[in-house]
User: Which sequence fits this backbone?
């Protein structure tokens, strides 16, 4: 019965404060929903919004402290920018969800709590500089999403979506773990930067085991962000899941995956790695845009569109450096605004039971509701990448970063596929504005929505416009984020944190 | 090397023989005792006081024909009785039953194997003991057997949690996972663990009763509901193995509780005679379990689960938290503070329970099944 | 002595792993897996990692596989739905080819292990002891350890959400969210 003499907390707790705050708020929400179900309708979303706001405050505070890497987590400016993007996305999700979950009877305290847990997983993924931590972040992101995808249990599509996502997601997670194990065995470290550095310095050429391990990790992340050929699940899952969950998945899960990719890619070996990313990016852009053209269901269309956008985003990761990562961050922000906008509009249009999800159902809807018509047009134009909206500037920064990094071929391909994208995005707008409504065809699209939903929709449209017009201050902010990524990579190498692997000294501290 | 090997072998054989020879005696004792408590006579035909009755039963069961009922899954049906008995016997290997003795100039631990993770080893084996019931229930191709197997496995898995959590509190108090060390630390504290871990002791007693599948928690073989549960289809020697497994388990559990809470082989007063005090303590526990069996009626299945998950798990968590906090803050006085705190906590848990039951009975009589089952 | 034990135990592990794959009966497969787990646990014992040995048995053989069996029995998986039922044409060939490739890779790696793995693992004394694992878990890896509890919380809450009876079918609007019988 000796008193513990170990120093247990070895890192600055501020590094973990944001994630802890979000997880704690999620637990409060969970408990509140369980014990006061009568108030769950308004109490849980309010608690969720409050928790997210609190977390954002913690993130900004922690970011200002300028903390060193904590061995598992880093709180650099990249993390801050990323966390804020995720928190904004989560905030919007809660606002967008409110109308949807009321209409579809999905109101349970667990809905918001699971969403917040998932968001905290996303934050962990972007903030981790260690494969162990990144894997846990991946799981914390995914497990609530599996459940949320099957949240409307009355609908068999929702269950199919959950099961598909679960099985394939578990498969992808297994790839991640195996990959991390291989990286560990090749380099003796689970730290992303240290492992990458070890292979560069100590070895004659990168070891095959390290490359195989990294490729497996890339596979898992590619699954999460839906890169071709790991995209098969996306349309089915996006279509079947409750629409608010789909929006969350399309933005937060994708953002988290790219955050992790940015961290891994910064330490990736040259050569084979860039070829892999190049191929993935090209395939994703072409295939995503091609298949989107033939879609009739709006959720499937948005699913393929999100695949295509993942291809563009990967270009930024491939380009790397300050400009590339900054462009990725900016694009993620723009993508979040326009995707949420599109899904918010779809939530309103689909009506109770998600009846009207085909594009044809939206004929002439703009006449009945100019608000929906205008906002949807803005989101579609922005997704297509037309000026002066956010999507245009996002693509502009990405493409210029890729050209500067020496990938003109890929950039040409990206421009061409963007032109393909214009076709199917404009088709939605054309249907809404220029075609006559047909009274008898299918379930009629709804236009009525509560005030909150209409406000959110307008705010998102304004945001898309503002991000486009005032893009340079935002870009300066994201630049600071990408600079942070570089700095903390250097810091990690300099510190060369004590690793537990083959060093008995680190382990024997506690034995008596 | 050779000496150790031979010593280990002799110890293993001795422990096996002693434990196995306990079994018939315990069966006789239980029958006599329960009969006495129920104002019957019990076995009295074979031998003096019916002492030879279990031997006669054993002989009868062994020479019976081995029957494979039609439709059973043969391999699993054959293996299941063994899998219920082996873990119980194997668990006894790490239980120290006396202070080390000197033989031929060497120190010999009175323990088959002094492994430094003895406590975990026992927990691992008790988690393997589930397989016997589960496989017997499944392989019998009988719905009552299956129900019994499912019930038993769910029950045993559920009650492993409070057991594990209570044992962890003992580990905190000892600072080691070795059972030898547990006994020695009780000597050095000058007080048996039952005092600083009173609540843990109660929780462990209740949980082990459920883990043993004995009345009032013998839901897996409740004859008024599912014939004989998982061993309905068993007869002859295979049935005897299930029967013996239960009693071997009881001896093991009694020995474990003795080591964990009652100072193992140490004498409460008077001289320390090897094995004597250990045996007395074991028998005290076995008698307690028999008494409980004769006294309490069988509980309902949902009550059993509610007891485990809603009462024992939170209570053992509270006990663990209290133990950890006091050990860190209390310093050298921790054991004394704990001795008071533990009893206070036990009383507190009792009061909370009483209030909860009172509240329940006001709204709905009995521990009702959870509301919202119908939809 | 150690070498012999290693051969025997790993042989048992491989044989039962094969049994898992080739048994047509799901419960037999599960039992083979339990046996294989126990053999692998013994391998840990050979590395004198007693703690991992016990955890392997208690967690994998004792907890996870019991739950597997539980589910199999509740769903009453029958023998016909074994591993080899309902395979796609050509699946066996592809599987054999890939398996052969994996085997070749493994043999190659073992044969040239020293060259490929830059730092072959040295196992320090006391590796895998409770103290070591406790220290590693609660100091350096405290944060991942705590995050694991969050993951488990999310999984538990999710399982409850998906399994709860009330709300199985969409209720008419305005019904309370609680579990009131209708």
Assistant:
């Amino acid at each position: 019965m000796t008193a513990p003499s170990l120093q247990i907390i070895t890192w600055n707790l501020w590094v973990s404060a944001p994630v802890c705050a979000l997880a704690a708020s999620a637990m409060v929400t969970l408990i509140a929903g369980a014990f006061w179900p009568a108030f769950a309708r308004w109490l849980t979303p309010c608690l969720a919004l409050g928790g997210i706001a609190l977390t954002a405050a913690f993130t900004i505070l922690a970011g200002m402290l300028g903390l060193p890497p904590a061995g598992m987590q880093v709180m650099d400016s990249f993390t801050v920018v990323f966390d804020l993007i995720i928190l904004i996305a989560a905030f919007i999700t809660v606002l967008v969800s409110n109308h949807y979950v009321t209409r579809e009877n999905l109101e349970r305290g667990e809905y918001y709590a699971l969403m917040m847990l998932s968001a905290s997983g996303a934050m962990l993924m972007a903030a981790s500089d260690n494969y162990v931590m990144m894997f846990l972040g991946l799981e914390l992101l995914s497990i609530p999403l599996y459940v949320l995808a099957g949240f409307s249990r009355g609908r068999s599509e929702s269950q199919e979506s959950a099961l598909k996502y679960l099985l394939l997601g578990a498969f992808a997670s297994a790839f991640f773990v195996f990959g991390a194990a291989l990286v560990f065995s090749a380099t003796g470290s689970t730290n992303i930067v240290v492992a990458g550095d070890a292979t560069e310095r100590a070895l004659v050429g990168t070891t095959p085991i390290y490359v195989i391990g990294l490729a497996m990790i890339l596979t898992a992340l590619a699954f999460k962000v839906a890169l071709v050929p790991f995209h098969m699940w996306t349309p089915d899952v996006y279509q079947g899941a409750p629409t608010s969950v789909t929006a969350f998945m399309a933005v937060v899960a994708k953002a988290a995956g790219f955050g992790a990719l940015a961290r891994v890619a910064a330490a990736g070996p040259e050569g084979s790695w860039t070829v892999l990313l190049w191929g993935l990016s090209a395939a994703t852009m072409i295939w995503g845009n091609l298949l989107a053209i033939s879609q009739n269901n709006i959720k499937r269309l948005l699913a393929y569109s999100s695949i295509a956008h993942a291809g563009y985003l990967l270009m930024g990761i491939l380009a790397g450096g300050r400009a590339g990562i900054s462009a990725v961050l900016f694009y993620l922000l723009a993508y979040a605004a326009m995707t949420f906008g599109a899904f918010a509009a779809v939530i309103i249009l689909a009506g109770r039971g998600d009846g009207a999800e085909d594009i044809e159902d939206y004929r002439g809807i703009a006449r009945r509701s100019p608000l929906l018509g205008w906002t949807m047009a803005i989101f579609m134009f922005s997704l297509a990448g037309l000026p002066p909206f956010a999507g245009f500037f996002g693509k502009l920064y990405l493409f210029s970063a890729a050209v500067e990094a020496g990938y003109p071929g890929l950039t040409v391909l990206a421009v061409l596929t963007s032109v393909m994208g214009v076709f199917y995005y404009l088709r939605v707008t054309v249907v809404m504005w220029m075609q006559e409504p047909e009274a008898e065809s299918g379930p009629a699209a709804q236009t009525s929505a509560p005030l909150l939903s209409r406000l959110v929709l307008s705010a998102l449209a304004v945001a898309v416009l503002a991000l486009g017009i005032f893009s340079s201050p935002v870009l300066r902010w994201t630049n600071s984020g990408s600079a942070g990524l570089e700095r903390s990579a250097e810091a990690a190498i300099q510190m060369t944190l004590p690793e537990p692997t083959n060093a008995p000294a680190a382990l024997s501290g506690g034995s008596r | 090397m050779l000496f150790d090997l031979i010593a280990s072998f002799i110890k293993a054989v001795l422990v096996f023989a002693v434990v196995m020879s306990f079994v018939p005696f315990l069966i006789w004792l239980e029958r006599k005792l329960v009969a006495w408590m129920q104002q019957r006579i019990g076995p009295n035909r074979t031998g003096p006081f019916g002492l030879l009755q279990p031997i006669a039963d054993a002989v009868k069961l062994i020479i019976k024909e081995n029957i494979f009922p039609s439709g059973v899954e043969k391999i699993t049906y054959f293996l299941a009785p063994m899998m219920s008995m082996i873990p119980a016997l194997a668990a006894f290997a790490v239980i120290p039953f006396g202070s080390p003795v000197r033989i031929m100039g060497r120190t010999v631990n009175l323990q088959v194997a002094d492994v430094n993770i003895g406590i975990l080893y026992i927990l691992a084996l008790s988690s393997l003991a589930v397989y016997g019931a589960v496989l017997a229930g499944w392989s019998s191709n009988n719905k009552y057997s299956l129900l019994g197997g499912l019930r038993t496995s769910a029950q045993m898995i559920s009650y492993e949690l409070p057991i594990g959590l209570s044992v962890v509190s003992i580990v905190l108090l000892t600072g080691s996972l070795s059972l030898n060390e547990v006994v020695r630390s009780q000597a050095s504290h000058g007080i048996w663990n039952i005092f600083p871990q009173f609540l843990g002791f109660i929780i462990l007693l209740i949980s082990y009763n459920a883990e043993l599948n004995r009345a009032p928690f013998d839901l897996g073989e409740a004859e008024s509901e599912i014939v004989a549960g998982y061993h309905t289809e068993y007869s002859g020697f295979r049935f005897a193995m299930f029967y013996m497994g239960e009693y071997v388990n009881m001896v093991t559990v009694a020995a474990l509780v003795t080591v964990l809470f009652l100072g193992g082989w140490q004498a409460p007063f008077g001289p320390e005679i090897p094995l004597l005090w250990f045996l007395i303590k074991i028998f005290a526990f076995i008698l307690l379990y028999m008494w409980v069996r004769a006294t309490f009626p069988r509980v309902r299945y949902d009550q059993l689960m509610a007891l485990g998950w809603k009462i024992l798990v939170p209570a053992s968590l509270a006990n663990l938290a209290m133990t950890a906090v006091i050990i860190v803050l209390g310093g050298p006085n921790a054991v004394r503070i704990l001795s008071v705190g533990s009893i206070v906590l036990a009383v507190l848990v009792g009061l909370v329970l009483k209030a909860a039951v009172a509240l329940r009975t006001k709204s709905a009589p009995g521990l009702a099944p959870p509301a919202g089952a119908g939809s | 002595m150690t070498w012999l034990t290693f051969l025997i135990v790993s042989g048992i592990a491989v044989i039962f792993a094969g049994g898992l794959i080739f048994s047509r009966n799901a419960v037999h497969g599960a039992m083979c897996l339990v046996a294989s787990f126990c053999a692998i646990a013994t391998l840990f014992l050979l590395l004198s990692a007693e703690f991992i040995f016990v955890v392997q048995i208690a967690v994998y053989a004792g907890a996870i596989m019991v739950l597997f069996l539980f589910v199999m029995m509740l769903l009453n998986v029958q023998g016909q739905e074994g591993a080899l039922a309902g395979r796609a044409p050509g699946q066996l060939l592809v599987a054999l080819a890939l398996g052969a490739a994996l085997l070749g890779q493994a043999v190659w790696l073992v044969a040239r292990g020293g060259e490929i793995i830059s730092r072959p693992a040295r196992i320090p004394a006391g590796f895998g002891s409770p103290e070591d694992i406790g220290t590693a878990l609660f100091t350096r890896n405290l944060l991942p350890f705590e995050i694991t509890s969050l993951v488990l919380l999310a999984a538990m809450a999710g399982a409850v959400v998906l399994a709860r009876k009330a709300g199985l079918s969409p209720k008419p609007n305005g019904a309370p969210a609680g579990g009131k019988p209708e």
